[in-house]
Amino acid sequence: DADADADAGATSSASRADSSPSSGGDPLLSLDHIVFGIAGSADLWPRRREFLRLWWRPGAMRGHVWLEDHVKQQQQQSTTTHNATSSPSDRRRSSSLLPPIQVSEDISRFRYTNPTGHPSGLRISRIVAETFRLGVYHDARWFVMCDDDTIVSPDNLVAVLAKYDWREMVYVGGPSESHSANTYFSHGMAFGGGGVALSYPLAEALTGMQDECIERYPKLYGSDDRLHACISELGVPLTREHGFHQWDIRGNAHGLLAAHPVTPFVSIHHVEAVDSLYPGLIHLDSLKLFTKAMKINPLSFLQRSICYDRRQKLTFLVSLGYAVQVFPHIVLPRDLERSEVTYIAWNRQGHRNEFDFDTRDSYESVCKKPILFFLNDVWRNGNVTVGSYLRARVRDEFKRRVLCFPRSPPLHNVKQIKVLGNPLSEKWHLVPRRLCSRINQTSDELLTLVVGECKKRSFGSAADFL
């Protein structure tokens, strides 16, 4: 009855309060409490496992790669880093650095009637349930599913999931960047390529009903919509976390990387569909530099800071671990919060209305385009993160000098910007705020920026500088 439901709700609320991390009832969430189910295919695994090597931590993380079939021996040995000259012991040691492979159950008994999709969506939708049914993860709190072409920040994943009570049914993830995709599938669905997290009770409930549930949805396209349909039947809404990135984009990802939300970076998907993240590096090497910066200071990775040089009328936009942009004029924060459309959507549409977040067009005038400095290396000096950002070569440098006269290009002699990143507090992500920074002209060729949390009485970039 209604009184009983109210009493149950009060009891549940009390239990949530008692079991919160701050109450001391449970050990703090760690990677030991998270089990990964990584969706892959046997044909692509020899290539895509190189992405997984960049973020997987052997011995510290648990989970499986789920394939539709066993990987053939010749495929196992045909990667750029493990070629025919590698010894069998080297190959075995290398394989042990990756999650163990599981072959998914046969899904031919399930109906699939979508004319444009592929039945593999049935298999992938059942990865969490198959992982749960292994029966070896009784101490888990979260089950996380993602794809084998995804980069994940394990530390930030822990920080984000620690905000929620794993004893309740919780469904965490993010939608697509594409408005068309969200409209077709659902604006309340987590897109699994970028990662979806299910608390233990939700994974347990899903396991008990999913096979019967998916039989009711033979017309659905893929895996994420089937998973969402069954979670919807359980009455659990999506808890959206803006650090999960489906990355339904192609081409130049600069506009997204330079305008990351003020929240911890958790994941990016479809890394094969975008250009090299840093100029001058081949694709895999750019991902190695990307994950190196991610590991050195996870919480502040890709976080932005804005500051100004009022005398020279310059705007500095820092994206930690990625790039520094120097605009030759004053650009206010509200405009800089928007992502510059340097990419196209997964459906190859490039107009701004295709994206479900704030965007802006690139500057047409060469005199308004920013000077770009991209990360070249990053290291730690005590508790400070030091990043070296080198000036990018551009084809229109001479054009800029001629057309923008008498105003010369900004920082004409500066070849390098050094960014010193101060550590963030462990609770920064609970009430996040864009970072603050200040400029220090070290020499004619070197500029230093110091970035960190804003002081409590600081107004922020524009109010403090202009």
Largest sheet: 8 strands, mixed
What percentage of amino acids are in beta strands?
A: 15-25%
Derived structural class: alpha/beta
Average pLDDT level: 89
Q: Helix coverage percent of residues?
A: 25-40%
Counted beta strands = 22
Distance between the termini: 61 Å
Read across the widest sheet, the strand sequence of neighbours is 12-13-14-18-19-20-22-21
**Total separate domains:** 2
CATH topology of the largest domain: Spore Coat Polysaccharide Biosynthesis Protein SpsA, Chain A
Which residues form runs of ≥5 with pLDDT under 50? 1-23, 78-86
Q: Kindly provide the radius of gyration, computed on alpha-carbon positions and rounded to a whole number of angstroms.
A: 24 Å
Can you characterise this structure?
- This protein is of the alpha/beta class.
- It has 2 domains: 19-245, Alpha-Beta Complex (Spore Coat Polysaccharide Biosynthesis Protein SpsA, Chain A), CATH 3.90.550; 295-465, Mannose-6-phosphate receptor binding domain (Cation-dependent Mannose-6-phosphate Receptor, Chain A), CATH 2.70.130.
- It has 15 helices and 22 strands.
- It has helices spanning 2-18, 45-53, 73-76, 88-95, 120-125, 127-133, 154-161, 179-184, 200-214, 224-233, 254-257, 283-296, 333-336, 397-403, 461-465; strands spanning 34-39, 62-67, 101-103, 142-147, 151-152, 171-173, 196-199, 238-240, 244-245, 249-251, 267-268, 304-309, 314-319, 323-327, 339-340, 343-345, 359-360, 371-381, 384-391, 416-421, 436-441, 446-452.
- Strand 12 (304-309) and strand 13 (314-319) form a beta hairpin.
- Helix 9 crosses helix 10 (224-233).
- The protein starts with a helix and ends with a helix.
